[in-house]
Amino acid sequence: MEDSLRRRRREEGEGEGSKADDGHRGARGQQAKATIQGGKMDLSSSEMQQVLREVLVQKGASSSSSSNRTTYCLILTLVLLYLLTVIPTSVYLYYRILGDGRGGELSVRDFTSLLSSSVTSTIKGLLLPPPVEKLTWRITGGGSKKAQKPTSIEDELPPLPPIAFGALLPYPSPDDPYQQEALMTLPDALDRGFDFLSVPVGNKTADGRWRPIAASDIGLSVEQMRTRLAGHVRARDGSDVDSVLEQLEVARKTDLLAVVLSVPMTMLQDQQLVSNLTDADRPPIPFELWVRVPPDDAGWSGWTAFHRQLNYTPLAQALLDLRDPLVPFQERWKGELVSGVLLPMSVFATGGEGDSARQLPASVSEWVLGVMDLRQAVVIEYEGEGYGYPVVGSPGQSLLAECGSAVAETVAQEEERRQPATKAEKVERALDVLYQDVLVSLLAPIPEQVDESAADYFHSDPATDMLYEEALARCLSDRLVAGHLDATIVVSGGGRGALVQSVLNAVSKAKIKKWDVHVVEGSDEAVDALRKRVSGAGDLMWRKVKVTPGDLRTFSLPHGKRAHVLVAPPAENHHSPEYINVALKGGSLLARDGVVIPSEYSTFVTPVSTARLWTRLAQTQDLLQTPFLVHSKAQFFPARESSGKVRVEKVWSFHHPDSTFTTIQAGERSFQGDFTMSVAAVVHGLSKFFKATLYKDVRVSTLPGESVIGQLFAPLFVPFVRPLMLSQNDTLSVSMRRRVDVSRMEVWYEWRPEARQCEELGGLCGVHNAEGAVFNMTIPPLR
């Protein structure tokens, strides 16, 4: 739902910019370019206006109100130059750096359309006075819709995307569906705070034919229908399939935001309905289909079976009907495609004596807050028995507004409670806004278009850097206690300086008087950035840092010295074991009593249900055989301990130094394990985590419940080619291998699920990424 609403708003110039094995430091810098998502880019025209106004102010354009004609011409020239140069560049770079939380390739046509709408709205914003703000019931808890850049997050906190509020309305009258009073009701509801409305898709005329809804019938513009109106298809009972199919045909011919499907659960298994939606000889449905289902076990089973018959299309999404407010919240819905929650007015309670205002019961609030992390819609179904149609000024309108206000207030209070206070919490918020559900390739380079400040952001991880600082400070302090007054430190992969700064902080904390810091970095851009910091630093400690471009495997310290501490990335992705252990081979780099930070790291896996991520990769089989780094809340882990804790299995470990690691072939590992489903679930793949021991009890982890607030390291999503529908107590067997080919100088992963359902799926449960045919990581030759 979120994707559809934003996509439609983009087309009218109101679009909104959204937003290694598990977390290598370099992989954090790779997040900008390799994002795979399900839609295209949105960019807020209001942000364009703000940027343009700031540029004009800086150019001395505040005098534009002057009658001086020369000044006016100068300003107009600057505006035209800006529109023709800076805006196209800004739009393109913004897309390449951040995307919108959905990504995809930006076609020339879409880019031109997006640019045109941005320029048009910018000119309007400059030449026309701002609209007068209307009084509404809406409480905005999500903050501004301004698109965010990945810099200075401590100074300007990125706002969460707002939750969309909608209202599902009936016909004004059974006899005359398009009364004149509706011409004012719908536009007024949109003006008063609803983001979208849902109304019946049409009316059955006297001759038995369906007449589609028209903009003139309901007082909306054609553009409002496309961007803010959802249709509603209903069935009287389970035998009313023909009527539902006729209504769907009407909806196909009407340009709508989405269509709500309200039918009995038994009808979802009707083959006529399924065939209508999946017939290969017909064009696909041109809208999102929000399937109204109860959130209980029966509703979940009915929805997942229906979605499976639709081949897991992302256009079909569950709309959770909370008519029964006593159904407890089920976390597994986070693993499904959910458009939002539907709140019939009957679930709203009135206040105490003398208070007639509608309130949201605690049990319903739990569901609303449960989907807040997914930023999905809240739809209020108007039930006007005794009130009539909610026309302007009527009691029904007031009742609808009270219900909307109750939901908005609940959301606003929760978002206020979640406001971050510490730097780490602000980084966590930035992750939620900028990187939530963004799938990042392990192989992506840092985009060339990223400027230095943005690149610094991508390379920094304050939470993890602090742990490295603590680990190294304790290590150096232990050396002092042992009588060692000096320290030579080698940093492998210094990035753009954040990790090196943590090393210098640790040296200062440990009060080491005689020390050397050598940074070995393979990226030319990072080497340049490090050297700039060394040469331009006012901090004398930085001036002692020595930067060496090249490869750790061939690096040696001058004058036959050996390192007392080697600082390296905390995970085994990007062939870190091969780099570090080959570099340590022979004992010429690390002193006999030397320490490697980290000293050990392990990889863990668990089954994951995440329809949102899987459907974004399902466009091609190759993507479903490729692991991706991702921060996501749209997921559920169905294998649990009796305590409710997520059950994970350790698949392999590496430690440093390792005297048995004589060739890179020693980096091969294998795993086989079984997982029992605690509840019925659709398993879309594996989540792969790591846990690294930096020094003694100082650890970095991406395991559920163990990652620290604000940590940029992300788990790995390892998808299955086909989702597996498993019942409670079913067993999922998983085999996984880390392969190394010396002749090809490549490292890759292979994985294979085995379950009861694999028999009917045939080869789709076979080995994924066999022989590294789809995804592999090349070990660069020595240089």
What does this structure look like?
- The chain crosses the membrane at residues 72-95.
- The chain has 783 residues and is α/β, with parallel strands linked by helices.
- It folds into four domains: 9-18 and 29-127, no CATH class; 165-419, TIM Barrel, CATH 3.20.20; 452-561, Rossmann fold (3-Layer(aba) Sandwich); 600-778, Hnrnp arginine n-methyltransferase1 (Distorted Sandwich).
- It is built from 22 helices and 29 strands.
- The strands form six sheets. Strands 1, 14, 20, 21, 22, 24, 25 and 26 form an eight-stranded antiparallel beta sheet that branches. The chain has an eight-stranded parallel β-barrel with strand order 2-3-6-7-8-9-10-13, surrounded by six helices. The protein has a five-stranded parallel beta sheet with strand order 17-16-15-18-19.
- Strand 27 and strand 28 form a beta hairpin.
- Helix 4 runs antiparallel to helix 5 (108-127).
- The longest helix has 29 residues, at 69-97.
- The model is unreliable at 12-67, 93-111 and 121-153 (pLDDT under 50).
